[in-house]
Amino acid sequence: MDIKKIGYLGPRATFTAQAVTTLFPEKESKPLVTIPACIDAVVNGEVDVAVVPIENTIEGSVNLTIDYLIHEQPLKIIGEVIIPISQHLMVHPYHSSNWKEIEGVYSHPHAIAQCHKFLYDEFQHTHFEYTTSTAAAAKYISENPHQKFAAIANELAAKEYGLSIVKRDIHDFENNHTRFVVLHKNFVELDHVVKESSGNKTTLMITLPSDRAGALHQVLSAFAWRKLNLSKIESRPMKTGLGNYFFLIDIEQRMDDVLIPSTIAELEALECGVKVLGSYPYFRI
């Protein structure tokens, strides 16, 4: 598949932009304001694929990405890239010498949550403002130099927007990684990427029959006896009523001709709903 333009959660220098340049360093990219805007851009033909965050090791799943894919725009996952996340505290150079006197911290909600311990220790009485991305926070700080505000973002954002990093690696846990998915209208092969894949996955969405005890156990058993390794299972509300959930399951292999299709057939025989969201390579940086 020839990818010409990639949409991603902007502005420039977000972690999502880093994921894009990691996989597609020579492709044209288009920053967009929100995750739904990235997904809609693929549907409307403004871009060929979108790259959006789907999970962080500290904060868990990005529910907006999952819910928008399931309930609004059912794009296909054709690839995944996992990158390390380093969060830094940065200010306008005007305030680099008195940064402990800042009056507000701006960043994406996940970034603020990832740095909870540092913020509690250093800025217990400072207010926090949420932005659509970490780079958007850095951009805002750069455009308001006379306000005593700081941003939490990455090193690319500091360079892009001329900010001074006053405290590095303020995230609570060292093993901080985020998964980003590459989305397309159809099931297509992800070609012409610069990295060798680290492995393959297949992602299924499964709904259980409402009146069958032990249905989830039967679902997991269908994978277990075939020795299909599951790297993730997660429940999300169907939004149709209390107690109604669907399950997202990641299988550590590409769709084959026998094992996964026969598993799906068994699940459907158990009156489960099964939908393939993608079968794709993943890349670990």
Automatic annotation (TrEMBL):
What Enzyme Commission number does this protein have? Answer: 4.2.1.51
Classification via InterPro entries:
ACT-like_dom_sf, ACT_dom, Chor_mutase/pphenate_deHydtase, Preph_deHydtase, Preph_deHydtase_CS
In this chain the ACT domain maps to 204-281
Give me the reactions it catalyses. prephenate + H(+) = 3-phenylpyruvate + CO2 + H2O
Answer yes or no on keyword Transferase.
no
Positions of the site: Essential for prephenate dehydratase activity? 178
* EC class (word): lyase
Q: Which GO terms describe its cellular component?
A: cytoplasm
Gene Ontology terms: biological process: L-phenylalanine biosynthetic process
Give the pathway annotation: Amino-acid biosynthesis; L-phenylalanine biosynthesis; phenylpyruvate from prephenate: step 1/1
Superkingdom field: Bacteria
Q: Which CDD domains does this UniProt record tie to the protein?
A: ACT_CM-PDT (cd04905), PBP2_Sa-PDT_like (cd13633)
Q: What molecular functions are annotated in GO for this chain?
A: prephenate dehydratase activity
**Keyword terms of this UniProt record:** Amino-acid biosynthesis, Aromatic amino acid biosynthesis, Lyase, Phenylalanine biosynthesis
Instruction: Enumerate the Pfam families for this protein.
Output: ACT (PF01842), PDT (PF00800)
The chain positions of domain Prephenate dehydratase read: 5-185
Q: What protein name applies here?
A: Prephenate dehydratase
Instruction: Tell me what organism the protein belongs to.
Output: Fredinandcohnia quinoae
Q: Which gene encodes it?
A: pheA
